[in-house]
Amino acid sequence: MSDLSGPAPVLALGGAAFDGYVRVAEEPLRAMFTLRGDLSAKALKNAATGLAAVDMPGQGQVALNGEHCIAWMSPDELLVMTPWDEHAKALGQLDATLTDPALNYTDVSQARALFSLSGPDGLVREVAAKLAPVDLSPAAFPAGSFRRSRIGQVSAAIWMPAPGRIEVVCFRSVADYVFTLLRDAARPGSEVGLFG
Amino acid sequence: MLLLECPCCGQRGEETEFHCGGEAHITREGPGADDAAFENYMFERVNPKGVHLERWRHVHGCGKWFHAARDSATLEVFGTYAAATHRPPEELLETIRAKRPGFKWRELA
Ligand SMILES: [Zn+2]
Description:
Chain A: This is Sarcosine oxidase, gamma subunit family. By secondary structure, chain A is of the alpha+beta class. Chain A has helices at about 1-5, 40-50, 85-95, 120-130, 175-185, and strands at about 15-20, 25, 30-35, 60-65, 70-75, 75-85, 105, 110-120, 145-150, 155-160, 165-170.
């Protein structure tokens, strides 16, 4: 709640963007909540779906609709995102829904940085694949896939909202490092053609 | 390079996505233990060439601990299994026996 009384939140990199052979951009602030507990618990499911208005994702999946999404983070963890203007409402909703002490949430909106890669599907996959030890081929990583791994030397999560677009979330403290790596990987002339 | 499949989240990744937590199935000695038992718990580790059982953590992934059975010479991974157990599942031991006949690791064979 501290952000409601403090200064307006700012993006880690002020919305930095780079037009390489794919576009790399820092996305506008989103409300992000980590929900932890038994993923089959009704109250946890209701809290997540009530916020994002999408179905619960399966293991290794993300369910999304625009900026609303629920991502499967681990057997007892979800990441729920909504547009920033729903942040205050979402906090109230979570407080009201998650009354069981074994189910809890943390507001991580300002602990994260969010980037997008957009462009031709094969090239977008390739830029991410240069940095993460993950099979990003269309067969192994179709739209709707969600994968926690590393980008260079830091933890990150990668998902594919739609063909031709990958979104990446990392800790805000390493936003500059991750953006620099993504920008370098997307530099014109460094195309590999891995995915056609 | 080791290719590990995390039994907690089902993701298959290479070893830099994980962190090794040392030898598996160490008995933690309590305050009642004698010096020899405590020394054994603190310091004695096997360093086999061949079949080895270890603890691993999916540090850049789901964050969970699990166990892995692998060959320390060829880096073949025989399987991974839950963290909360005192010995590998019998099915995994059968796999190791078939691939490495006559193997011995601590009291397991
Ligand atoms: Zn895992």
